[in-house]
Protein 1
Amino acid sequence: MPRGLWTTTVGSFPKPPRLEKVRQQAARGEATPEALHAMEREETVKLIQRQDEIGLDILVDGELYRGDMTTYFAERTPGFAISKPVRSYGNRYYRKPVAVGPIRRKEPWTVAWWKFAQEQTKKPIKGMLTGPYTMMDWSFNEHYPSRAAMTMDLAAAVNEEALALQEAGATHIQIDEPAISVRPDELSLAVKAFARATEGLKAKTITHICYGDFHVIYPALLDLPVDQIDLELANSRYDLLDRFREHRFTKEIGYGVLDVHSHRIETKEEIKEGILRGLEVLKPEQIYVDPDCGLKTRTPDEAFAKLEAMVAAVREVREEKGITG
Amino acid sequence: MTIQSTLAGSYPKLPTEPGDVNVRVIRNRVDAGRATEKDLADAVSATTKRVLDLQEKQGVDLPMDGQIAWDDAQTYVARGLKGVMIAGLLRYIDTNTYYRQPEIVGPIEWTQPITAADFRAAQAMSARPLKAFLPGPYSLYRFSKDIRYGDPIAGAGAYGVALAAEAAALEEAGATWIHFEDPWLGRARAEDARAVVAAYEPLLAGRRAKTMVHVPFGAPQQVFDDLRPLPWSGIGLDLIEGPGGWDLLPRIPEGRTVGLGLLDARNTRLEEPAAVAASVARARAARPDLDIHISPTASLEYLPADTAEKKLERLVAATRAAREGA
Ligand SMILES: [Zn+2]
C-alpha cells in the first residue's frame, strides 16, 4: 500500500481573544510579563490538544507567543534594533528590525517553547524559524555593507538555532523563506544562505514560500537544499500544477489547500478535488496537505473548521486511493 | 536648468508627536463602531494638513499630499474604474507591503473623477503647487488579474485611456504636475515594450500638466528606447535600486526633467547631503541641460514616520547643497 498524504499546518494560529487582550495589557504595562507568559503556555497546551483532536499528523506550537515573523527573532538578537511602526497594508502596521551592528545569536530563540510544546504530545512538533534571506529582506540595514553580508551572518545565527532544536530532539525543522520568490536575481544568495542555515542538520527540513511570483523562480527553486517546500495551491486555484507538469516537482511538497485569506470554510469536496488533482502529478509520499499559509489572520473557529474539513478530505482520499499514513 | 526637491509618492500617516491626530487609531475606532466615517474623513484631512505643513516647513519645493486615505498605491484609483473589481492581497513587488489585486472583469471605463476632489482639498491647504499622484498604467495592468482582455497591449492600453481621463480631471482641478508610479517599467523586458507604449500613448497625449513617469525599485533600461519618443515631461529614476538609471541619463531627450531618486526610501540609514549633492553634480555634468527633481527613491511610507521626517530634512539640505554647487 502506498503511504502519503500526511496533514500538517504552516505554523501560526490565531491568538485567542483572551490572549490578545492580555498581550495588549502587557504592552501598556497593565499586565505582568509573567501573567502573559502563563497565558501563552496555557493556550499553547490547548492548541496542541486541539490539533491532536482534529487528527493532524505533524503539529506546531502555533506561535501564540510571537508577534511577527522577523521581529520576534530580532528582539532576542544583539545587532538588531526595532523600528517604530511601518505600514504593511491598509491600517496594518508592524515594527521592523534594523541591523545596527553585527548580528550574533547569543541565546536560544525558540528551543524552550519547542520543548514545552513537544512535552504535550507524542506527535512530532515542527521547529519553526524564519529564514536568513527573509529576515534580511524584511529588515532595515544601517550596519552591513551589503545584503549578502547581512544574509550570511543571519544564516549562521539560524543554523545555531536549528542545530539547538535538533539537539533538543526536533525531527522536523521548518525555516520559512516567504521573501524568496520576489527577487529572482538574488535566488542564488538565498540558496547559499539556506545551505548555511541547514548545515549539519539531519532532521527533515521544510521551507514555506508564499506571496510571490512563483513562475519566475520555478524550477530554479528546486535548487534549494531542503527536503520539503511548502506552497500555496488553493490561492492560485491550483495553477502551479501546470508548471509541475512542464517540470516535475522533485521534492516533498507542503500542499496548501485552504485559502487563509478567506472567511469561507472550504468544503470537504473541493479540498478532495484539489488533492486528487495533485495526485495526477505528484506521488502520495511527496504530499503533506496543509493550509496555504499561517492561519493567524483567521478567527480560531474558522481556523479549526477549515482544518477539520481538510483532515476529513484527506481521510476520504486515502480510503478511496488505498493510501496509508 | 533648475533643481527642485520633491516627494516620490505617499508619506507615513502616523504622527511623530504624541497627541497629534492618529488616523490609524481613528480607523480602528470606526471598525469597532466607536467613531464615524466623518471622524475618519476629518482625521485624514488633518493628517494631510500635517504632511503638507511639514513639507512647507522643511522647504520641499514640489510637495505631494501624502495619499493619507490610500491603502496601497492602486486600489484607491482602481476601485473607481468601471470594469475593475478588487480581489485578494498580494505582495507589492519585492516589498514587505501588500496591495489588493485589481481584477479586470469588464471593459475598463473611467466614469467620473476619482482623485480630483482630494487634490483640490489638499491644494487649498498648501501655499505651493502640489504634484498629484496616479498609478502608472503599465504597472496597474501588471498588478491586475486580467480576465477580460487576456492581452497586455489591450489591457494596459485600456488603463492608459482611463488614467488619461483621470489626469484630465486632475488638470481641471489645477494640477500642474502629475506623478505616475510605475515600478514594473524597471522589470519590463524588450518584449513588453508594445504594452508599455500602448499604456502611455493615450495617457500622455495632449496633457496640459507636466508628467513624471517614476520607476522605483529598478531602472527601465529594457524599454527606455520605446518610452523615449513619448511626450512625458520627466522620467524618475531610482538610482539606489536601479543604478542602471545612470546609463539612461545621456539618452533623455532635450528639454525634459530627470527625477533623481537619491535618498533610499527603503532603508533607515540616512544619507549625507554632501554625498547626495555630489551625485546631483555627476548628473549635471552628464546633462547640464536637464531640469532636476531630487527625491527619495520611492514612497516614504516604507519608513517609520520619524525616519521619514529625517529623510525629508536630508532631502532639502541636499537640494540646497546641490544648488550651491550649481
Ligand atoms: Zn505564507
Note: Chain B touches chain A through 29 residues (CB under 8 Å).
Protein 2
Amino acid sequence: MFITVLAIILILIVIFQIAKASEYVSVLKGEDRAFKQNNKINGALMIAFLILGLIGVFWCNHELYPKTLFPQGSSSVEGENVDKLLKITILLTGIVFFATQILLFWFSYKYQYKEEKKIHFFSHSSKLELIWTAIPTIVLAILIVYGLRSWFLFTGDAPKNAIQIEVTGHQFGWTFRYPGKDGVFGKKYFKDINATNELGLIWKDSAELSQKADPATFDDIIMGGTVYLIKDKPVRFIINSQDVIHDVGLPQFRMKMDAVPGTPTTLWFTPKYTTEEMKKRTGNPNFVYELSCDQLCGVGHWSMRAVINVVTQAEYDAFMAKQKPAYYSAFPAKDPDNIKAAAAVSDSSKPVKVASPADTTKK
Amino acid sequence: MSHEVVLQADVAGVHGTAHHEEHHHKQSFITKYVFSQDHKIIGKQFLITGIIWAILGGFMSVLFRLQLGFPDTTFPWLETVLGKWGKGGHIAQEAYYSLTTIHGTVMVFFVLTGGLSGTFANFLIPLQIGARDMASPLMNMLSYWFFLLASVVLLSSFFLETGPFSGGWTAYPPLSALGQASDGSKQGMDMWLTALVFFVVSQLLGGLNYISTVLNMRTKGMSMTRMPLSVWGVFLQAVLGVLSFPVLFAGFILLIFDRHFGTSFYLSDIFVAGQILPHEGGNAILYQHLFWFLGHPEVYIVILPAMGLVSEVMSTNARKPIFGYSAMVMSMFAIVILAFLVWAHHMFVTGLNPFLGSVFVLLTLLIAVPSAIKVFNWLTTLWRGNIRFTTGMLFAIGFVSLFISGGLTGIYLGNSAIDIHIHDTYFVIAHFHLVMGVAAFFGMFCGVYHWFPKMFGRFMNSTLGNIHFWVTLIGAYLIFWPMHYEGFAGMPRRYYDYSGWESFKQFISLNKFISIVVIITFTGQFLFVFNFFYSIFKGRKVTNKNPWQSNTLEWTTPIKPLHGNWPGEIPEVYRWPYDYGKDGVDFIPQTTPVGEDESVH
Ligand code: HEM
Ligand SMILES: [Cu+2]
Ligand SMILES: [Cu+2]
C-alpha cells in the first residue's frame, strides 16, 4: 500500500517536472512555435480519440451485450414492449450519437488553428435552426406515442383471471400473502402486528383498536422468501411496505413498483417461461428469477432479495395444496387437522369436515 | 453599490493607471482575504472551498468503489485509517451507505452548485456586465459564509458515534425520518438537514444578488441581448434556484417536524424495529414531490452555468461567433420553464397516477429539444472555425461530448415505459454522471483554466492541463459507459455487494475494472490541484491585459483588478460579445464602437 502511494506520488512529480520543463522550453523556442506544435498534437489526439472511442464502443458492446437481459428476452408478455421500445430508442439515439460525436471531434481536428486562415463568419441561420428544432421534435413524438401505448398497458387494469398476491416489504425482506380459498384478502391493520402475526391480519376482536375479527383472514396463506407464479397466467401484485419505502424490482419481467408504507400500489404481468425453462434457455443451471429491492431502504438494502418460482399450473396446484393458512400456525388449536387429531384421540363420534386440498387453490 | 467601492474607484481614477496596489486603500489581511466583500475574492473563496470538497467527495467515491470492485479483498490499512468503519479491512455497510450519501450531497450541492455557480457567478457577473461589484456585497459575503457553515456542519457529522446520514442524497422519508430505521437517520440526519438549510440560505442570498446585479447594474450599452452567454447561464440558474430552493426548504421543514415534533406529514402505518409507530394519514410520496420540484431544476442549476462558460470559451477559441446566440438564449429560457414541469419523471414507479405520468413523459421529452438545439449550435460554432486548443477549449469540447452521451440516455429514462425497467439501476448512474456530474465538472475546469489569468494574474501550466484533460475524458468514459450495460441487466444502484445475486454477479469483473479506472482518474485530478495551487504563486505571469484576444469586458480591466474593477470610468459597450472574425478582423471587443462601413449581422 505504502509502496503504491509512493509510486503514484513519484509518477505525479515526474509528470509535473516534465510539464514545467516544457514551459521553459516553450519560452526559449518562442511561445508562438510552441503553441502551434501543441495545437497540432491536440488536433491529432482529437481524431485518435474519436477512432479509438468508436472502436471502444463496439468492443464494449461485444463484451457486455451477452451479460445484459437482451439475449434472453423478456420473461413477461408485457415486458416485450419494453424491449421493443428500447431497441427503437437505441437505434434512433444511436444515429444521433454517432453523427454528433463524429462531427464534434472531426470538426475539432479539421478546423484546428492555421495561420492566415479566415474563419467563416456565420452567426445564425433561421433555416438550419428550424430544421434542428423540427427533427428532434418529430423523433421524440414517435418515441412518446410508442412509449405511452405500453405505459397505459402496464398501468391499466389487470386481466380478470389474474391471480392476486400481496407483497409486503420490510427491513430487509419480503413477505407474500395469497388470499386462500375464498379468494379474498382479509383485512389487516399495522397496529395488529406482533411476533406471531407479522402482517397484522385482523384475527381477533379488539376493543382497544375498535375492530372485529375478519373471517376472510382465516384462510390467507403467508410465505416468505419465495413466491410461486403460474406460467402464462397473469399475476397482480398488491404492494405494501411496513416501514420505509422499498421497491419490487423484477428485471427479467421488466417491471418495477415502489412499496410505500400507508399507500398500496399494484403491478401486473404475465410470466412467459417457467424457472425450469429459463435454466435451459439461458444455459445457466443456477438460474432463478430474483426480486430485488430497488429503493434504498437502509443498510441491508443490498440483501433484500426474494426468489420467484414460475411453475406450471399443475405444479402450482400441488404446491398450494400443501400450504397452511397462517391463522392455523398462530392458533394451532383452531387448525382442523389438529381438531381432527384430537377428536380421533378422544374418539368423538362427530367427525370435523376438513377442506379438501384442491379447494385451497380455488380462486 | 457600496459606498466603499465608489470611493476606491475614485481614488484609483484620480491617480491614473500604473501601480494600482500602492493606491489601494488600507485593508488588513482579514478584510481583504477573509471577510472580503469583493466579488472577485468571494468567487475565489467559493472556488477553493469547492476544490477541497471535490477532493473529499472524490475520495469518498474511491473508498466505496473499493468495496464494489474488490468485495472479497481485505485492505488492512482501511481499519487503520477508518477505525470501526474499516473493520477487518472492509468498508462496513453503514460506512458504505454514509459515503455514497455524503458523496452525492457534496458533489451535487457543494461542488457543482456552490463551487461552480458560486465561483463564476461571483467572479464573472460584475466583470462581464461592467459593474464595480454585486448589488449587495454584504449579502454576497454572507452567502459564502453560510456555505462554509453548511460545509463545516456536514463535515462534523463524520465524527458522530452513529455516523453521518446514510439514506441517499435524495433523503426520502420514512427512512430519513426514523432513527430506528437506520443509524444514519439519527443525529447524522439532523446535521445533514442543518447543513442543507444553511446551504439553501446561502443559495438564496447569492441568487437574489446575482439576479438584481444582472438586472440593474449593467454598464451603458450592455443591453440584455449583448450579455455574454456565461452571464446568461449564471443569471438563469439563479432564477431557477430562487424559485425552487424554497420548495425544498419547505419539504425539509416538514421533515424536521416529523422527526422531532410528532407530526405525520410523511409517515403512516409504520412498524419498524419491532415498534408500532402512532403515525397515520401521512404520505411519504409528498416529500418526493417537494424534493424533485427542486431536484430537477437543481440539475439545470448545475448545468446552465457550465453551458454558459463553455459557449463563451468555445467562441473565443474557435475565433468565430457563437452560432445562434438568440437560439442559445431562448433554449436556456425554455429549459428554465420546462425544468419546473418535469419533476415527476423521477417518480414514475411510485404509484403515480398513470395519466399524470403520461403528461410528465410528454413534458420531459420536450426538454430534450432545447438541449439538442444547444448541441447543434456548438457543433456549428466549431464548423469552419480556427480552433486553438487551449486547455479551457479542450474541456469545452469534452463537455459537449459528455453532454451528448448523457443527454441521449435521458430520452430512455424520460419514457416511462422504459423507465419502469431501468429506474434505479446503474443506467441512471451512467446517465446523470455523464450529463451532469462529469459534464459540469468539465464546464468548471473549462472556466478555471480560461479565467485563471484574470483571477490570479498568472497562467496555469498548459502541458499539465492537457494531460489532465485527456486523462479525465478517457477515464470518465471508461468508468461510466459500461454502466449502461449493467443497467440493461437491471442491476440496482446503491448495493453494497452483488456477489449473492444470480442476476447481477456476472458484472463482478467489470466492477473491478471500473474501480481501478476510478482510482487512476481520481489520482489524475491531482495534476489539476497541483497546477492550480502552484500556478497561483509560481505560474507564468500574464503580461497582456487580454491574453486570449477575447471580446468581453473583463479583459479590459487591469491584469490584477482592484476592488472596483476598473480604475477609471466603467467602459461603455457598443456591440455583442461575439464579433470574432467579422469582416476579416480577428476580434472586436465590445468596447469598440461600431464602424461606419461595418457589415450588420
Ligand atoms: C436531455 C434531457 C434529459 C432527460 C429527458 C432526462 C431524464 C431523466 C429522467 C427521466 C430521470 C429519472 C430516472 C430514474 O430515476 O429512473 C433522470 C435522472 C437524472 N437526471 Fe436526467 N434527463 C435529462 C437531462 C439531464 C441533465 C441535463 C441533467 C443534469 C445536468 C440530468 C441530471 C439527472 C440526475 C442527477 C438524475 C438522477 C437523480 C437521482 O435519482 O439520483 N439529466 N433524468
Ligand atoms: Cu431496499
Ligand atoms: Cu429530472
Note: Residues 292 and 305 of chain A are 5 Å apart (CA to CA).
Protein 3
Amino acid sequence: MLDISKLERRWLKYKIKKILPYTLLITTVTILGFTIPFVLSNRHSSKAMIPLKKDAIKVKAPNTENDEGAMVLEPSMHFIESMDTPSTPITNTPTSSTKPAPTPKHSIAPIASLPTPTPAIAQTQATKAPQPIVKGKLTSIKRDDTAFDIHEIEDRFKDTSNPNLGVYIAKYHYDHGNYSEAYNYALKTNSINNSIDDSWLIFAKALVKLGKEEQAKKTLQLYISNSNSQAAKNYLDTLDKGGSK
Amino acid sequence: MEHSLFLKPRDLFMDVVNPKDYVQIDSVSHMYQSLKTSVQKPLKMILLYGRPGTGKSMLLHKLHHDLSKHQKVCMIDIPIIDEDDFLRVLAHKIYSYASREALTLTRFLELSTAVNYPVIPIVLLDEAQLYSPSLMEKIRLISDARALKFVIALHKTDNEDILAKEHFQTRIWESIELQNASHEELKIYIQKKLLKANCFDVASMINDKNIKLINKLTRGNYRDSNKLMFSLFSLYVWYEENNPRKIKYNALATKFIEMAAIHTGLIHA
Ligand SMILES: Nc1ncnc2c1ncn2[C@@H]1O[C@H](COP(=O)(O)OP(=O)(O)OP(=O)(O)O)[C@@H](O)[C@H]1O
Ligand SMILES: [Mg+2]
C-alpha cells in the first residue's frame, strides 16, 4: 500500500528542490535591483540629475564617456506615454461562434427560447478522411489532434437524463467558450435536479459570459435562498465586487 | 471504502490489456481501420510498431477480438522463440494437428493446403522483436505461400532501429507506427475511460491544466498514464478515508498528481 506520509515528505523535498533555483534567482535579482541604483546614485550624487530621455534602457559601455566609467542606466519613460492614451480595455465578451442567448423574460428562460445548439467543432474534425496506407511503403500515421466527441455524451444525456452528465456537458461547453450551450445544458440539468451547486454555478457563469450579469445575480440569489449554497454565495460576492470570473 | 468516489476510477486504470476496455481514439481508430483493411489483402505482412506502452498489444487484442467473429485468427502474445515449437503450436492451433515431433516447413505448408479455410487465417504475433531472423524468414515464407497472414507487433527502442533490420526492408511489409498520445488524445483517453464507467463526478474534476501536467509527466505514454492515474486515484481513496478535507472536488490537485508521479517513478525525488 501507499505510504502517504513518506510520499508527502518526498513531495515536499521535490517541491523545495524545484523552487529553490527560482527563489535564489529572484532573491539575487531583487538584491541587485536594490543595490545597483543605490550604488549608482551614490556615485552621481555630486553630479547633476541624469536626464530622463524617452528612450529604452541604454547601457553605456564604460570608459567611452568622460564619466568615471560607470554604467548609466537610463529608465524608459514609455510607460508614462502609454498611461496617457487609454489602452483598449480588456473585455470579457464571449469568444467567436457563440450566439448570445436572448434575454430571458422571466428569471429562468425556457429552453425553447434559446438558440438551437450550434454544432461543436468536434464534428468537423471527426469527419476527416482516414489516412490511407500506401502499399509497400512505411506509412507512419501521425496522430492528428482529435476532437473529443461530446455528441456521444450529449446523446447519452438525452437518453438517460442523468444530471451528472448534464453538468459534465455544461462544463465542457463552458470551458470551450460555448456559453449559450453551457447555459442550455445547465438549465436542463437544473430542471432535472435543482440542487446541484455546480450546475447553478455554470448556469450563472454562462449568463455572465453572455452579458447578462444582472440575470446571473438574480438567479444566484434565488438559488441561495433555496439552498444556502456557500459556493453560490461566494460567486455572488465576487460578482457584487465587480469581478466576473 | 466501498462508497469511495475514487475506487472505481482507480481500478479503471489498472495496466491490463483487455479488448473490452478498448477506448476509441480517432487517430488510433483510423489506424485500426487501415489495419483491418490491410489484413484482407493477400501477401502483405503487417508490422505494427511503436514505443513501449503506445497500445500495440491493445490494438492487437482488439483486432483478435473483432476478427475472430468472422474468421480463423490466432493470437500468440507470448513469443514462441523455439522454431520447431513455433510451427508445432501453429499447426495445432490452426489446423488442429497434434504432433510430438518437429515439423518441417514443407510439412507445415502441406497441412495448410489440406485444411481449406474460406479465408486465409490470420496470426497475430506480439513482442515480435524477440523472434530470430531465421524464424522471421520462415514466417515470411509461410506468408508468401499464402498459407497464413501475419500481423506482428514489436517495440521500437532508441538504441536499436528494428526497421532497419534486413527482413523488414522488403516490400512485403506494410508498417503502421503507433505513437504517444497528444494532449488532446490523452484527454479523450482519460475522459472516455471514466465516462464509459459512469464516473462523471471524477471526469468533470479533470481540467486542461491537469491533463497538461499528466501529459508532461508521462509524455503521452498510455502505460505511464495508466500507472499515474492508478496511483493518483489510490491517493484520493486514501485521503477520502483519512483526511477528506484535503480533497478539493473542483479539479485534480497538482500536488496529488506530483505525489503519484513520485510514487510511480515518473518524478525522481
Ligand atoms: N486504445 C486504448 N484503449 C484502452 N486502453 C489502451 C489503449 N491503448 C493503450 N491502452 C492501455 O495502455 C496500456 C499500454 O498499452 P499496451 O500494453 O498495448 O502497449 P504496448 O505498445 O503493447 O507496450 P509494449 O511495447 O511494452 O508491449 C495498457 O494498459 C492498455 O490497456
Ligand atoms: Mg505489448
Note: The CA atoms of residues 163 and 191 of chain A lie 9 Å apart.
